Amino acid sequence: MAMKSLSYLAVLSLLALTLPLAIASDPSQLQDFCVSANTSANGIFVNGKFCKDPKLVTADDFFFSGLQNARPVTSPVGSTVTAVNVNNLLGLNTLGISLVRIDYAVNGQNPPHTHPRATEILVVEQGTLLVGFVTSNPDNRLFTKVLNEGDVFVFPEGLIHFQANIGKGPAVAFAALSSQNPGVITIANTVFGANPAIDPTILAKAFQLDPRVVVDLQTKFKK
């Protein structure tokens, strides 16, 4: 019995030593990249933001006002996204969450895009939206749904998704994202508006288009 107890304790001790290694992992990225610096003089960023002295923190650090106000929609795609993230609500730092308000003009859309660091959950406050996302290769399966006021839809992290206003009037939605800095990659802007521009012959082959069409699209999206 003593030997069995000793073996049992040995197993528990081994588990105690190895479990932290088994569950350890690198922290999630909070920006596109974080290149290491050889000297402290070159180190000006951390993965996220520097923390304010707790003694200097006030209630205003956790407060943002005005999200109830409609935003003008002037973009070519017919939508305006107003973000509340760690850049304008400092108290979000390290909390892993952010928020956006999206205003859609009639026939407007939030075009296909992806958030590299966040899952998104969206609720419609006004109007009717057609929403959807596409799964990764090789299936590229499309999931779509028509949402009305009060309806909720989830876009998994990293997957390309979109929303389109299919109602007769303007639409409004709010979305929460599981990162203080989720990032956004709008597909058309990224591919055809890259700076410097991607070689048109590469894009022509990838999209099976005439290179002249690619050059025209790059001109439209040029910053």
Structure summary:
The chain has four helices and ten strands; from the N terminus they run αββββββββββααα.
Describe what you observe in this structure.
- GO terms for molecular function: manganese ion binding.
- Helix 3 (200-207) crosses helix 4 (211-221).
- The longest helix is centred in the first third of the chain and has 22 residues, at 2-23.
- The protein has 223 residues and is α+β, with helices and mostly antiparallel strands.
- Strand 5 and strand 6 (142-147) form a beta hairpin.
- 19% of the residues are buried.
- Among the domains are: 59-183, Jelly Rolls; 191-220, no CATH class.
- The strands form 2 sheets. It has a 5-stranded antiparallel sheet with strand order 1-2-9-4-7, with no helix packed on it. The chain has a 5-stranded antiparallel sheet with strand order 6-5-8-3-10.
- The chain has 4 helices and 10 strands; from the N terminus they run H-E-E-E-E-E-E-E-E-E-E-H-H-H.
- It has helices spanning 2-23, 187-192, 200-207, 211-221, and strands spanning 79-84, 98-104, 109-114, 120-126, 129-134, 142-147, 152-155, 160-165, 171-177, 185-186.
